[in-house]
Structure formats: structure tokens, C-alpha cells
Amino acid sequence: FNSQNGGIGGFEIVGNGNNYGSFPYNTQQPIILGPFMGDATTQFEFAVADIQFQDCYADILLGSIDCMTPVIDPHGDPHLVIAPNPTSYWLNVTAQLPGGLKIGEANVDIYHPDGRL
Questions:
Q1: Peptide bond connecting 78 to the previous residue in cis, omega within 30 degrees of 0
Q2: What is the mean pLDDT of each run of 10 residues along the chain (117 residues)?
Q3: DSSP at 11
Q4: 12/82 Cα distance (integer angstroms)
Q5: Total Cβ atoms within 10 A of residue 73
Q6: 31: which residues sit within 8 A by CB, 6+ positions away?
Q7: Which of 40, 82, 83, 88 holds its CA 20 to 30 A away from the CA of 111?
């Protein structure tokens, strides 16, 4: 993601009641979270918030992710990998098997509550 005038403490990523860590603004992107289970019921939500300036944040509700095509894999269940694109305002959501085989992918625009990208 792109940032301007961030605080010296960096930012943190949170979602679904979990804190995925604090990062300085010069952290190499993408920051990859997951894998997450695409169980068709979990409502995935994520937020990026400046540590110093609490009113500087962006959040997104991805909703539930459902893998429509059944996958038979002896090595486990499919998972989701969610990664921001460092040059634009969208997230890449990839469903993949534990061995890394991609079975689905989508891009999601990130909007601020006031409608800005």
C-alpha cells in the first residue's frame, strides 16, 4: 500500500480479532498474511493502522470466501493468502493448497469509509 506522513512508530495489521504484527513503513511489500481457511462462513476483515496517529487507518471487509469447486488433495485443505499490492490500492486474495498450488485468485479494491480509494 502507499502511505504518506506516517508516524515514526510504523503501522500494525489487525483482522478478525488478531494482531498480525507491527511494521515500519519501509517494510518490503507485500506483507503476506495467512494462510487462512476459506470455509465459506468466516467474514474476513482487515485493518492497517498507524501506531502513532490512531485516526490514520484503512480497513476492508472481504466477507466470506467460498471455494466453489471441490478440491481433492491428500495433503490438506485449501487456504487463503492475502497480500497487498505495494503500488496500488488493492489486495490480492489467493486460494491455494498447502503445497502452494493456486486454485483461485481475486483482486479486491480497498476503500476508505468516506469512499476514497
A1: no
A2: 77 91 86 77 88 86 68 53 59 65 60 53
A3: E
A4: 15
A5: 12
A6: 13, 23, 83, 84
A7: 40
Amino acid identity of residue 115, one-letter, is G
What is the pTM assigned to this prediction? 0.58
Contact in structure between 106 and 60 (CB atoms under 8 Å): no
Predicted pLDDT of residue 117: 45
Locate 39 and state its grid cell.
470455509
**Which residue is listed with cell 495433503?**
75
Q: Which cell is 75 given? A: 495433503
- 109 SS3 class: strand
Residue 31 grid coordinates: 506483507
Strands (E), the chain: 11-15, 18-23, 33-37, 44-50, 57-63, 79-84, 90-96, 102-109
Please tell me whether residue 91 adopts helix, strand or coil conformation. strand
